[in-house]
Amino acid sequence: xxxxxxxxxxxxxxxxxxxxxxxxxxxxxxxxxxxxxxxxxxxxxxxxxxxxxxxxxxxxxxxxxxxxxxxxxxxxxxxxxxxxxxxxxxxxxxxxxxxxxxxxxxxxxxxxxxxxxxxxxxxxxxxxxxxxxxxxxxxxxxxxxxxxxxxxxxxxxxxxxxxxxxxxxxxxx
Length: 173
Known about the structure:
Strand content: under 5%
């Protein structure tokens, strides 16, 4: 908390100096703010650009989280073991893991820059892995709610095999 207070103090004092100081003080304060905040602006711009270019992927992942959360909540209400604290903790954990691991996987994809079969395969498998974490959980919840009727057991078996070996052939057969 002290660190955040220091950041606010730094920004506020430099903004005040920009409006009240001499020309050299204004110049120094402007440069200090620009140097301190430019990495944040750079990273924010890159994330925003990536999210815009991949908005469909991001949308499907977060909708999968929402559907999984809804089905999981219904399941635990039916089982009579629903806990609001565990529910919120689980949602925050799932969102955090999807964002963190998704970021790391996108780093792998960025490092493998060359257009090649390996790059395309990595993008598909890694994004599918990120999506299938919440979507797979939603499928399992749905299967439990319908007593194994939906999704079909064949799909659930293919999903389990993919989770074990990341082999896309499981879905091809």
